[in-house]
TrEMBL record, chains A, B:
Residues 134-269 form the Acyl-CoA thioesterase-like C-terminal domain. Pfam families: 4HBT_3, 4HBT_3C. Residues 17-26 have a biased composition (Basic and acidic residues). This is TesB-like acyl-CoA thioesterase 3. InterPro entries: ACOT8-like_C (IPR049450), Acyl-CoA_hotdog (IPR042171), HotDog_dom_sf (IPR029069), Sec_Metab_Biosynth-Assoc (IPR052389), TesB_ACOT8-like_N (IPR049449). Residues 1-26 are annotated as: Disordered. It comes from the Bacteria. Residues 30-112 form the Acyl-CoA thioesterase-like N-terminal HotDog domain.
């Protein structure tokens, strides 16, 4: 792999297995840790990367990616075994198993297409989150050191949170169930559909804004990729409306610099105690 | 199977294969057709039923079910092959392949739990849709005959749509991208987590309300089941906010008679031409 590769590309780098078709091997890096495990968005991108390599010409980009998290992952070697269910004219569908030492971590199903070939119509009625300029938002230089120590992931990104949604860092959560801000990869790598899978799970759990700090293990995460993102800052919002029974849903929207809603995701996670 | 079984239970009835562990056979009924294919929610329930039978004691209910639709299904025999990835203390995860004549129709991954054992806390901030009483809503007796002819599915349910969101039936769509109403199974079978999987995909596509009639093939559908539904009418809302590039997302909420948000789903579907 060339030395110029970005942190994210190194994070999802894969080597095809010489003897087992559809199998790819890689390494889950320590730099993507969060609370002892590896970030769920990075895992989703790792598995989707393997499927993208298998989906073949005409289907270079994920359109939908659904992951069910089977067991907690940790930094170290990881294997993805892929299966392509169908290669159609505009869509290919596939499934992938991400495992470590023979133990399954994540099961993914996905549909791939060519996002550059979608029709031009945009009739989106959703509106992007209103944010202060990035330089008026809160970067991780202000984050508590204990948080960074548990979340090496945060050093891989330039995240600028809306001051209105970071009261929780000062013990004053808004209680609205919303966290939003600006997102870029720290090393300047441009966003693409695979990196958006990371972005969809990169912010602190929205439950922080409800006064419930602590990690929130993901049960299931589905991301829809709706357009190729333009270069520049992404606007990201996380919201929840149904905290109940020990679980909550987290809806994420990712808007690009051209004002396009490029990705929507929803996850179900365990509510921190 | 007892003759008293409901239409829905017959629709998802399965026979374990005598020689192949984890395999179940059944029949996709003509009564669940929509536009020539079989309703995607019924397919999801059919596959999840097989997984529920395999998940074992302690995990009787689906918590999350994600389906990627591989090829169009049709009435007739169908097979589900299941694989349980992990049986934990509170969660079991599994994957299922639904096929007909050896051709894959649907790939499902799911997590199962005991919804009756969830903790009691409900801190939901979402609010249920405001609807006129069922008797002031529009039943399928008012639907165009051509619609019913293409959607036998509608006869399996007692669906009462909010008059404010059925202008499309008279050529006057609201253009708000919302369809909502009351839902019950026509034969009075009480709702449960498996029937909610059907309910999540049972209303006409929300694009009808945008003045775009026509069927909208589902690419991916994920449903979160958040509580056991109380007996009685369900309130169901469908909404979309991102119609672009030939696809749209459809968010569904299902509220039970006790005012609990019992299921949330999102699908990506092709926008009708």
């Amino acid at each position: 792999m060339p030395e110029t590769t970005s942190e994210f590309d190194r994070g999802i780098a894969l080597t095809p297995h010489p003897e087992e078709p559809g199998r790819y091997d890689g390494e889950l890096g320590e730099g993507w840790q969060i609370g002892g495990g590896v970030n769920g968005g990075l895992l989703l991108a790792f598995a989707a990367h393997a499927l993208a390599l298998e989906a073949g010409p005409g289907h270079p980009h994920p359109l939908t990616v659904s992951g069910t998290y089977v067991s907690p992952s940790r930094p170290g070697p990881a294997t993805v075994r892929t299966e392509i269910m169908r290669r159609g004219r505009t869509l290919a569908t596939g499934s992938a198993v991400l495992s470590q030492d023979g133990e399954e971590r994540l099961r993914v199903t996905a549909a791939f297409t060519d996002l550059a070939a979608l029709d031009d119509e945009v009739a989106t009625t959703a509106v992007p989150p209103v944010l202060p300029a990035p330089e008026q938002c809160i970067g991780i230089e202000h984050a508590p050191k204990e948080l960074i120590a548990q979340a090496a992931l945060l050093e891989r990104m330039d995240l600028r949170l809306d001051p209105a949604t970071v009261g929780w860092a000062l013990g004053q959560p808004s209680k609205e169930g919303r966290i939003q801000g600006w997102f870029k990869l720290a090393d300047g790598r441009p966003a693409d559909p695979l990196s958006l899978l990371l972005t969809a799970d990169a912010l602190p759990p929205v439950t922080f804004d409800l006064g419930r700090p602590g990690w929130a293990p993901t049960i299931e995460l589905t991301v829809h990729l709706r357009a190729l993102p333009a270069d520049g800052w992404l606007r990201v919002s996380h919201a929840t409306r149904n905290v109940a029974g020990g679980y909550f849903e987290e809806d994420c929207e990712i808007w690009d610099a051209d004002g396009r809603l490029v990705a929507q995701s929803r996850q179900l996670a365990k509510t921190p105690r």
